[in-house]
Design brief:
This protein is an all-alpha fold and about 260 residues long. The protein is about 80% helix and about 0% strand.
Length: about 260
């Protein structure tokens, strides 16, 4: 019984965290924060360790400890991967070639570049939004411990999240990007596609578990599939912002358009 409760606690915490990320990406910071806090309260590792040491703690202390553990995990495993800002000779030469090939009269201004970048990021958010919204439905079903709803919402989320790859791949890149910039933006889109593919796989395993298959291999696959998704998405978004800004768009205004 205790093992089953721990499994449900992990699943609940992971899916609530993914749902919170969807809220942050879509600009609903209040909802994202509330959902994230609810998910954090379910994390079991720290209070389990305290119990093994025969340390009795009130429930509210366990919640605070779980919150601290999750923040530490986010810092060390989910933080965006910073990119090396020093360009090598080949990258510089490529960028200069792109600029030289474009007539001065047709080179976009910083404002025009920023508008293109804003439209691009809005397309990225729109591609991710259907999967993120269904993640909230999965989280609500998991919170209610309704196995029928968990199965139904996980099945829908698996299908929609797997379709996100084609949506990301169909997004048109801003025309102002240099060859190096296009390469970096495509890399960010690939990271997004891989993250949502992994999320779809996690939902497929959650669906399988809700259907009665609680073998350790199924539960472990579901946990491992979802644990790394948040960090991948954050890293992908960081890659896209840096690539768009490196070629002349205003980073602050790009971020404003996405919130």
């Amino acid at each position: 019984m205790r093992k089953a409760l721990n499994i449900l606690a992990w699943v609940f915490a992971i899916f609530m965290s993914m749902s919170a990320l969807g809220g942050f990406i879509s600009g609903d910071f209040l909802l994202g924060t509330v959902v994230l806090l609810i998910g954090l309260m379910a994390l079991p590792p720290l209070w389990q360790a305290l119990e093994k040491q025969s340390i009795k703690t009130p429930v509210w202390v366990r919640w605070i400890a779980g919150f601290a553990l999750f923040i530490a995990f986010a810092v060390f495993n989910g933080s965006p991967i910073s990119r090396n800002t020093t360009k090598d000779a080949k990258a510089v030469a490529t960028a200069n070639t792109d600029k030289a090939a474009m007539p001065l009269s047709s080179r976009p201004t910083k404002e025009q570049k920023t508008k293109q970048a804003q439209a691009f990021m809005q397309d990225v958010i729109a591609a991710a939004s259907p999967c993120d919204k269904l993640s909230l439905e999965v989280a609500r079903a998991t919170e209610a411990m309704d196995m029928v709803e968990i199965y139904r919402t996980s099945r829908n989320a698996e299908r929609v999240c797997s379709e996100a790859r084609s949506e990301f791949n169909s997004i048109q890149l801003p025309s102002y990007l240099t060859s190096e910039g296009r390469k970096n933006v495509r890399e960010g889109l690939t990271q997004m596609s891989n993250a949502y593919d992994q999320r779809a796989y996690g939902y497929s395993k959650l669906k399988q578990a809700a259907d009665g298959d609680l073998r350790p291999s199924v539960v472990t696959d579901a946990q491992e599939a979802m644990e790394g998704v948040q960090g991948q998405v954050i890293s992908a978004i960081a890659t896209l912002y840096m690539a768009l800004g490196a070629d002349g768009a205003d980073p602050e205004k790009i971020m404003e358009s996405a919130t």
